[in-house]
Amino acid sequence: MSKVDGALQYVRHFSKFGRSFRIQKQHPHLQRSESVKPQKAIPALEIASRNLSSFQTQLLIFRQLFDHISSTYTYLLACPRTKECVLVDPVLAQAKRDFQITQDLGLSIKYSVNTHMHADHITGTGYLRVLSGCKTVISKASGADADIHVQEDDEIAFGTQKLKVLSTPGHTNGCVTYYSPEQGVAFTGDALLIRGCGRTDFQEGNPRTLYRSVHEKIFRLPTATLLFPAHDYKGLTCTTVDEESRLNPRLSKTEDQFVKIMNNLNLDYPKQIDRALPANKVCGVYDIPQNP
């Protein structure tokens, strides 16, 4: 991302006449705003290539943060009224950065949550708990330690906002998606990536289970729902239910075709798996820095 792109701020506005986007481009040498109504037909990669890394409405403050080593996205969501916030899938190496951002914005971290027990990086939830006193959250099915364990239909409330828990196993048996019906956004973890999905060959993964999770849970959300994954390796930031149901090269196929693809990936194991899994099983409080 260039310095100019990093300075852009995208603000979503909702009206009784339908959803529209006001794109406020803020830069030391540029300030311009325009209103854009999305077209009925969404061209390939129109949404996926759009940078929605930062926006604020009267109802929600949003930041999409990135860890370059693990290509992991962390999401900060906050209620502007109460200043309570949630961090989704924080990375230990970036926990100080994330905490500082909340301080800069005058926010209080209420929850630090994981979509699943990660194998490619150590979660920052435990360290953020040390720094802020927040509660840590992960699914009950993950088998990992946390202050709060969630399952299907549970809700995580922060201020006037809430995230609904959808059980979406398959990448691991403990994967969940966090969905905000009010804002029309979902955080899919590794269950669904932009034009891809998480692997299914370890941590009790199962390709049939993943296929059904995506098709029966995520793809049944409203088609305009914005989907934010836990990873991206090509510089894309978000997608939609409509795009992925039509264009995902794996999950747009039949279930049997998908299973065959996933069973023949032959991927190397994540480099940090031997450190990440033991640490993440105890909420990332393994090898954390001793001096906040």
TrEMBL record:
State if Transit peptide is listed as a keyword: yes
GO annotations of cellular component type: mitochondrion
- Please list the GO biological process terms of this entry: glutathione metabolic process; hydrogen sulfide metabolic process; RNA 3'-end processing
Report TM segments.
none
* Compartments (UniProt record): Mitochondrion
| Enzyme class, first EC level, given as a word | oxidoreductase
- Supply the EC number(s): 1.13.11.18
Quote the protein name from its UniProt record.
Persulfide dioxygenase ETHE1, mitochondrial
Which organism does this record belong to? Dendroctonus ponderosae
